């Protein structure tokens, strides 16, 4: 497998949210077939879907990987599980959520994995952090990130910090 540049969405809304994201970034970077290249600032965002839960902290990481998409998914789910991720409710509270947003120029849609991520086009907490990493990004579907971002409201997002240099 050749190197692929991927973008991974990170989110948490339980416990020490920022610590969970930092631990996830360290775990991704420690994996022998993944390297964190850049990390967006962390943003506070309101929950989506199930509204009666704590706010989230979200970020996006640019990652180089040698893993194929399904192997990457398995590795990310193992990192989630190591941080006590429990899947009891769709869009419910969680210690950690790691999503493959983009994987090189791949377009894939099946029951287990959708790339680009199925909901990323409408989620400010994904698009704005992604924009901070690559404002000129064009999705494999031909959509420009800046155009998608201009079509949604991001006023509820609050930048918490800039961690671009926290993972070496």
Automatic annotation (TrEMBL):
One of its GO terms (biological process) is tetrahydrofolate biosynthetic process. Coiled coil: none annotated. It is an enzyme of class 2 (transferase). Residues 7-135 form the 7,8-dihydro-6-hydroxymethylpterin-pyrophosphokinase domain. One of its GO terms (molecular function) is kinase activity. Pfam families: HPPK. Pathway: Cofactor biosynthesis; tetrahydrofolate biosynthesis; 2-amino-4-hydroxy-6-hydroxymethyl-7,8-dihydropteridine diphosphate from 7,8-dihydroneopterin triphosphate: step 4/4. Gene3D superfamilies: 7,8-Dihydro-6-hydroxymethylpterin-pyrophosphokinase HPPK (3.30.70.560). Keywords: ATP-binding, Folate biosynthesis, Kinase, Nucleotide-binding, Transferase. Its EC number is 2.7.6.3. It comes from the Bacteria. The keyword Kinase applies. Catalyzes the transfer of pyrophosphate from adenosine triphosphate (ATP) to 6-hydroxymethyl-7,8-dihydropterin, an enzymatic step in folate biosynthesis pathway. NCBIfam families: folK. Belongs to the HPPK family. This is 2-amino-4-hydroxy-6-hydroxymethyldihydropteridine pyrophosphokinase. It comes from Allopseudospirillum japonicum.
